[in-house]
Amino acid sequence: MADKADTIRAIFAAYLSNDRRRVEDALADDFRFTGPYDDRIDKPTYFERCWKGSDWIERHELERILVDGDAAFVTYKCTAKGGKSFRNTEFFVFEGRKVRSIDVYFGATYQDGVFVRQAE
Question: Is the backbone of residue 69 left (phi > 0), alpha (psi -120 to 50) or beta?
């Protein structure tokens, strides 16, 4: 279980350092990603749509990682350099040492500590 938590920590560190290769290596070839805007997109589409440079991120705070067999939940707070922050939860499914899928659940957004209502 510690290996899976360590893999999740390493992925978040790689995002922060803009190390795309490290993230790619952690994901299975048949990786799938699901979020509010995407349904089970494949690995190439994930990087095309979701990968951004990390220069907008000030920090990630991993609040909790819960591992249960080949699955794990991680809740984190991301703070952008401009003062915007948000808290998300992601559900990881592993196949061996690789991440086979991630489902992301978006939380509230704040600007300088004040709640920002999102467009409906």
Answer: left
Rounded to two decimals, what is the model's pTM? 0.91
Following CA atoms 46, 47, 53, 54 in sequence, which dihedral angle do they give, to the nearest 10 degrees? 50
Query: Is residue 101 within 8 Å of 30, Cβ to Cβ?
Result: no
- Tell whether the model's pLDDT for residue 60 goes beyond 70: yes
Q: Buried b / exposed e across 40-74, counting CB within 10 Å, b at 16+?
A: ebeeeebbeeeeeeeeeeeebeeeebebeeeebbb
Residue given tokens 């995407």 in the structure block: 38
- In the block, residue with structure tokens 């190390």: 19
pLDDT at 115 over 80: yes
Q: Residue 55's pLDDT is what?
A: 80
Average pLDDT score over residue span 49-71: 91
